[in-house]
Amino acid sequence: MPSPSRVLKLIALLLDYPSPDVRAESLALHALIRTAELPEARRDGLAALLDALCQGDLLDVQERYDSLFERGRALSLLLFEHVHGESRDRGQAMVDLLERYSAAGLAIDANELPDYLPLYLEFLALGDAEAARQGLVEVAHILALLAQRLAQRESLYAQAFEALLALAGVAPELAGQCYQAQQEAVDDSLEALDRAWEETPVSFTDPAAGCPSASPRRQPAGVEQPLQWVAQPVPQTHPRATR
């Protein structure tokens, strides 16, 4: 049975910008999915997502990825996008997160942003199973919100977020109960893009919201302080990480 770290790396690969590597390694990735310590429904969901990434012209798959994750804030894979919008706190939060990555031995290519979800998953994969779980719990509300919004669009990418919540041990309905996804119609027009960037960001830390975390916020092993999730526009490059 594969370790949680291998499953996190698998999901990071599935959520990254589609590349020929996924297709080349599809058989091995399917084998990893089938032996992952996840509920059967979550394994089936990841397998379906992998199949979709391996079917048809790669350029079409990449275009679908762009249309989901790079057109507005609502589905951004930059975790800091979903809390404080254009907060001034982003700069220091980025520095703090980069320092944690460096301490864990994770080197980031130039021009990469540390809050990119696949990169964060690779960071969690460097720790032990409990530290990784706590790192997922730390962002469970964001994962649940994205799962809901992707499900509304009938996107198989929702399966990756459901799997992450399963690894965190957090029920999707519990994690997202205070932060229901907006029931917006799917609209990819330029006007809709402008509106998306004007959306008020969701706050997961404001006590006035009256909704506590679905699970106590505990500090992951090896991390000096809890992560601070703030915001930044989606980049046009796709981060890669090396150890």
Automatic annotation (TrEMBL):
Pfam families for this protein: Nitrate_red_del
Positions of the UniProt region annotated as Disordered: 203-243
Superkingdom, natural source: Bacteria
Gene Ontology biological process terms from the UniProt entry: chaperone-mediated protein complex assembly; nitrate assimilation
Database matches in InterPro entries: DMSO/NO3_reduct_chaperone (IPR020945), NO3_reductase_chaperone_NarJ (IPR003765), TorD-like_sf (IPR036411)
Entry keywords, A to Z: Nitrate assimilation
GO molecular function: metallochaperone activity; unfolded protein binding
Protein name in UniProt: Respiratory nitrate reductase chaperone NarJ
Organism lineage: Bacteria, Pseudomonadati, Pseudomonadota, Gammaproteobacteria, Pseudomonadales
